[in-house]
């Protein structure tokens, strides 16, 4: 008996685990979709930061280019009067030029990164939409399958035949309707008795009025 109990327990646990896995498919997919949405939101936030950094680099590049031109013009304006200051102006111009080169490289890297991240985000969005649509379809199929399985279980049960159940139900309802009908009929008979007496009294009053009018006409 101990071995049989252990085998039965093992089989029951295996079946319960299998059923649990089947029942949790929807929950597993739902959690995956939520995780994907959270990851997508983070990617979109970081993508926005990359775009903001790119815009800042673009502004910085424009400022450096303007400063380079400014130092060149300053060098030209003082070259005849003060060569040392003109040389200092050119030195600052060269610094701007080097910074322009470095900024352009960073800007190029940001542009490349932005394109790559943007493409990845679009792929994630499309995949997320596909998974969500497929999950909704699977939910519909699962619900329909459960409904059909329930109907088949009801119709295929030999111990609880659906037609016999409806017949027994109809019998109970018919008996209840018959009992209620008897009470209604009894009440109707009583009501009929009162109505007949009331009609007779009304006719007597009408006859009395008719005879009274007839006597008045004779007196005239």
Which sequence of SSEs, written as H and E, runs from N to C?
HHHH
First-last Cα distance: 118 Å
Shape from CA axes?
elongated
Oligomer: single chain
Low-confidence stretches: 1-5
Characterize the biggest β-sheet. Answer: none
CATH architecture of the largest domain: Orthogonal Bundle
Number of beta-strand segments: 0
Structural class: mainly alpha
Q: Looking at CATH, which topology of the largest domain would you report?
A: Helix Hairpins
Percent range for β-strand residues: under 5%
Would you mind describing this structure in some detail?
The protein has two domains: 2-156, Orthogonal Bundle (Helix Hairpins); 161-220. The longest helix has 73 residues, at 83-155. The chain is built from four helices and no strands. The protein is an all-alpha fold and 220 residues long. 94% of the residues lie in helices and 0% in strands. The protein starts with a helix and ends with a helix.
Layout of helices and strands:
Layout: H1 2-23, H2 25-78, H3 83-155, H4 162-219
Keywords, please?
single chain; 2 domains; mainly alpha; 4 helices; 220 residues; Helix Hairpins
At a glance:
This protein is mostly helical and 220 residues long.
